[in-house]
């Protein structure tokens, strides 16, 4: 009923009628407080400018304090249930900021009741929401400067009368206010005009007061759990503020403070983190949360790229210290990894990468110890990349660290290769992780400048025994397929005028661009991996690559002319840009453009012809191999037939008497036909028949048949020049004839 009747809107508009009547005004605010519990009424109240009407009268005189309480409760309900953006826009005016500031300062400096402290914190939250939307009125009203003062007065001495007698009682409300003030510093840091206020308020110095070992709390200090929460919150605030105030950071010796704090984080002492707060996640029973946020702070500092700050950091031994921390983490992890530890490792690698990039001396400081740690991280199980804990971020930071800390330092490169690091890089490439391929190929390209890399690439073999060249060609084919480059079924060039252009690139019309802007053809080089693959092949060569098929060589012929094709593509864009701008080149320039276009097309046709030749040669080779294989099969079949025929003949002779007689007749006929027709005189003729021979086949594996004793025929050396005895011309047994005896006697005489 109230929503339908618009009661809330009417009451808001009626507030101006009772501005000078305190009791009636408080009564109306009570009703509005009840009505603001529903979203519909909040919308109606916001429409009636309830935010600005109520907030602008926060500081009206009221001895009971009901006015401020009811008004703040209504504002809270409006922020929770109503259109938040519209309401904050109403509150972001000077007319609203001044009453809000005065009310907050009065509650902070003059009230000690629990109720007042809670109300003070509520107003601070509202002020923070306003600052997130628009900091300018906060600065113009001086509220931002006062909030900075209240955030730092307990750490940095100030003579401002507002804080001269102000003390925090370390109760829950003051603890919450301290964290809200830290959060306000982060909000103010987003506005450039507030940077000078932060510097004047010595915010960096105040926050660094918490970057120290958490010793035993004194009598007037925060309890251990609350101090840990404030400590982590302060370091998190520094992560946002310190990069904007590098001068103050260096004045406070920020690098030294952080490195000393990191020393404490890895030291063995009795401290044990509570891990109860938002920033303390993963830090229960250890110092991981402290290490995590201090490394975040250091990462945000080095990311600014200030040479003075980074050099100061390295001069204090940060590289060796960070490597020591990383080594300890990898040693102590013992298979128990969580997102906090992985983030710490990734941040260390990022800091090292930023510090060592483009500085040979720092890369030498990174040295072999750093290479060993990177190799250990590279051997991470690939199944963890998608665990959700942060392994994917860690492997990317590891690859970036290889790029920045190893490449360019020959001693580190050689040690990396010696430890088979290139094999691990190629194994990562073989995983074919889409968002990792470009980075890995970039590392591979840089390593190819080292001549010792080429043998490692040539030696590598994948899980299916594929070579590195085979892997690179597979990546090229995959990339062209994704780009929509036109190729036939064998991978040959189809469009001689646009041999590299994909469907997506072709669909983009060439538009005139300024001279200092990149054209589509140039941008395409950076967006895909083909240029990197061409660079690698240029180093390892295009000939005599092992493990490639014919279709691979067809693709390789395109890669070998990639640069020529890309140059032609750029010239084609120039022609199209001139045409789009209606610029007609002079005759000589037009002739040059035509010659270049024709030359590019001829190169494409030459490559296509070479590809066809490769395919035809392969088809011819396959045909010859097929014919040879068929001939071998035919010969084998014929041999099998002969063996079967011989076997059938053998069976017939051993099982059929008539067949045996037929075989015998054939044998006798063969023997007779082989005898010489003219026989020597007195020659002895042996019969082909051996009497009483009953065996027709061999009865065992080894049978010795002696039809004539060896001492009668002179042994195996008979009829040779070295025979001991001569065989008679008449054949048969050796006989000592008289003529021989007489010849011997004559020789003796």
From TrEMBL:
Residues 1-574 form the Cilia- and flagella-associated protein 69 ARM repeats domain. InterPro entries: ARM-like, ARM-type_fold, CFA69, CFA69_ARM_dom. This is Cilia- and flagella-associated 69. One of its GO terms (biological process) is positive regulation of flagellated sperm motility. GO terms for cellular component: non-motile cilium; sperm midpiece. Keywords: Cell projection, Cilium, Coiled coil, Flagellum. Signal peptide: none annotated. Residues 616-643 form a coiled coil. Pfam families: CFA69_ARM_rpt. It comes from Pelobates cultripes.
